[in-house]
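thread from #wetlab-drylab

HS: before we spend reagent money on co-crystallization trials with zinc ion, can we at least see a predicted complex? here's what I'd submit
DV: go for it
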Amino acid sequence: MDKIEILMALGENNRERSKVDPKKQLGPIYREIRDLKSAILAAEKQLNHMAREYQEKKEELDQLLLDVPKWTADIAKAKERMIRQRGLSLKDMLEIQQEVAKAEENQLLGEAKAIDLQNKLAAYTKEKSIAQARIKELKAQFNQRATIYNQEKAKADLQMASFAAKEEELMEGLDPETAALYQDAIRSNPDNPVVILEKDICGGCRIGLSKHMVKLVNHGDKLICCENCMRILLPSHKGAKE
Ligand SMILES: [Zn+2]
């Protein structure tokens, strides 16, 4: 292989490598994983919030359930006083009746509130199991995607390593000057550092070249780089043979 052939092989190797670029290939699945992760965090935050609300309502209900027997006892006591103590003044009777009425009202309100709280707690329990199921589903999706990502990444890394090995092997056949030129070209054009002159146009950036430049490239004595894009320009007759 002469240096032109080696450069052409290097150019081809780079073009093939650019097709399996892991960043481009794995971008969509990476973004999917990232979105799943934030969905899981949001759902977990919501679940924690729900658990706190549940706890508050539960404590409220427990307190209420402690109060209900107290009110029941108050009512019974007041009623007993009314029965036992006959001959009470009208004023005392009214007072006791008011006490009973108030205790009964408290009891009714308390019972209604307890029912309301119980309903709310039941609703929270249901919401909680829905949220937990959703988190479980999201985590399963996350794990599945992460497994695919890791497999694809390992595959891409392996491919990249094989392109790098081929590049290294090819570059061993180049003289230091040509190798340096190639390094410069690849720095600015990692996907296709070596292009073929198409009549008088650079095959990379498509800029028109001067007659003098075209002559130099086609002569093939010295390697010429496009002054615009820094790619190495190879003569078209060499390319036609390939
Ligand atoms: Zn160019």
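DV: Residues 176-241 form one domain.
HS: ok that's useful, forwarding to the group
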